């Protein structure tokens, strides 16, 4: 059965094309800074927003027209595998990501769920072997089931903690089975709603132990993917423990996990934390934990996690600049954690959404590469901090001074002459790179 009719593989045709189903900017074989565009970007498609999402929101039921529904949940799950790999093949994307509950029905018990996962991942492996498409990462959904209403690894119930551990063990077994390159932990309910009834220290210690056990198990089975934590503030828990990049880094350092974990950062989550996306990437890069990203755009007017397909060129450019400065993301990548609007109801709109996201990041890559190649921001920053290249500034950098020395220096010299940043001009120059 054909799930996305009337469309063959999406090819690069250039920005002058009128073909809706063509890349205008993403040319996978084009070299940028000595590396193929596809190797810089390592695009992945998210199972949950493409094949399982039905177009529902807080105020209405699903609107999408889909033709992969079967007579039973397992029949639907099998049809979705076929539809998903047809989509990946037509987009010529090399990676995909999934939550465990995306791919198989949970049934009435963990055992039934795990049996369903075994059956569906057998089919997924067949498709992977047939197409050469790879698993960027998988993760366990430990936030949707009622048992996780108080968290998973931070639950007040030890039995719930054990269920969460079983789910992650199964997830790691699947990751090995499918040769996954990364494994993600997204703690959707790892936080608290009120301190009045929360043992904050115990919950933090328990989730740290959980992560240590995951590392130990991966080493035991001889398959240790890059472990990633995905920070997110608010939504759904009032106080998330992994609020943003800086909060998560502090947790990793405190509990001796920094050597085993990096971060999977999402654009929309950055906004919810009150940051820009490039800020979060820069913080992760500073601590050498920038591992992978989820690419999407938020509608700031609405104020929740809207997960639109990326279309803001400035955001994509600044994100790609940080990624280039990081030396890339491999073995991580750029996963489109993005969903169609409720009004984009046809199956082929999934192709159009991903074309938009891929073209946006391709343009962002080329603009960021030009900024890096010409050294505009590098030279700007070097000049702005040039006072630390000589004199008292160099002594500060080298640790060759003290408060007493600085006290005398400040009194003996004139009031400092502070220069303008000309930040409006700088922003205008960055806009020039976007054209």
TrEMBL record:
Annotated source species: Aerococcus christensenii
Protein's name according to its UniProt entry: Xylose isomerase
Subcellular location: Cytoplasm
GO cellular component: cytoplasm
GO biological process: D-xylose metabolic process
Binding residues for Mg(2+) 2: 266, 269, 305, 307
UniProtKB keywords: Carbohydrate metabolism, Cytoplasm, Isomerase, Magnesium, Metal-binding, Xylose metabolism
Signal sequence coordinates: none
Cofactor note: Binds 2 magnesium ions per subunit.
HAMAP family in the record: Xylose_isom_A
Record's subunit section: Homotetramer.
Annotated gene: xylA
């Amino acid at each position: 059965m054909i799930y996305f009719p009337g469309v063959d593989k999406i090819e690069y045709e250039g920005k002058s094309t009128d073909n809706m189903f063509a890349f205008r900017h993403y040319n996978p074989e084009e070299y940028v800074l000595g590396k193929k565009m596809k190797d810089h970007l390592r695009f992945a498609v998210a199972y949950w927003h493409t094949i399982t999402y039905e177009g529902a929101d807080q105020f209405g039921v699903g609107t999408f027209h889909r033709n992969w529904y079967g007579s039973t949940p397992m029949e639907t799950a099998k049809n979705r595998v076929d539809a998903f790999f047809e989509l990946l093949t037509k987009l010529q994307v090399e990676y995909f990501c999934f939550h465990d509950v995306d791919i198989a029905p949970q049934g009435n018990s963990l055992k039934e769920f795990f049996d369903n996962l075994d059956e569906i991942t057998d089919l997924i492996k067949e498709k992977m072997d047939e197409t050469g498409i790879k698993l960027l990462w998988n993760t366990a959904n430990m936030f949707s089931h009622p048992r996780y209403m108080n968290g998973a690894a931070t639950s007040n119930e030890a039995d719930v903690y054990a269920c969460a551990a079983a789910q992650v063990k199964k997830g790691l077994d699947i990751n090995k089975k499918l040769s996954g390159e990364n494994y993600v932990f997204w703690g959707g309910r790892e936080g608290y709603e009120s301190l009045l009834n929360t043992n904050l220290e115990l919950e933090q210690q328990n989730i740290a132990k959980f992560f240590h056990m995951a590392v130990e198990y991966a080493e035991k089975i001889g398959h240790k993917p890059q472990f990633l934590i995905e920070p997110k503030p608010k939504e759904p828990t009032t106080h998330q423990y992994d609020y943003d990049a800086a909060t998560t880094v502090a947790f990793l350092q405190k509990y001796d996990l920094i050597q085993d974990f990096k971060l999977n950062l999402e654009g929309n989550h950055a906004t919810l934390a009150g940051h820009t996306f490039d800020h979060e990437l820069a913080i992760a890069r500073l601590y050498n934990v920038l591992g992978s990203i989820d690419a999407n755009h938020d509608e700031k007017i609405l104020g929740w996690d809207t997960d639109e397909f990326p279309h803001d060129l400035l955001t994509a450019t600044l994100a790609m600049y940080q990624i280039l400065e990081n030396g890339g993301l491999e073995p991580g990548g750029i996963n489109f954690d993005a969903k169609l609007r409720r009004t984009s109801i046809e199956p082929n709109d999934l192709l159009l959404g991903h074309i938009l996201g891929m073209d946006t990041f391709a343009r962002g890559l080329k603009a960021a590469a030009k900024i890096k190649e010409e050294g505009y921001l590098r030279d700007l920053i070097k000049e702005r901090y040039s006072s630390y290249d000589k004199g008292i500034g160099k002594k500060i950098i080298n640790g060759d001074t003290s408060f007493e020395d600085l006290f005398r220096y400040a009194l003996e010299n004139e009031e400092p002459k502070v220069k303008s940043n000309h930040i409006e001009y700088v922003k205008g120059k960055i806009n020039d790179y976007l054209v």
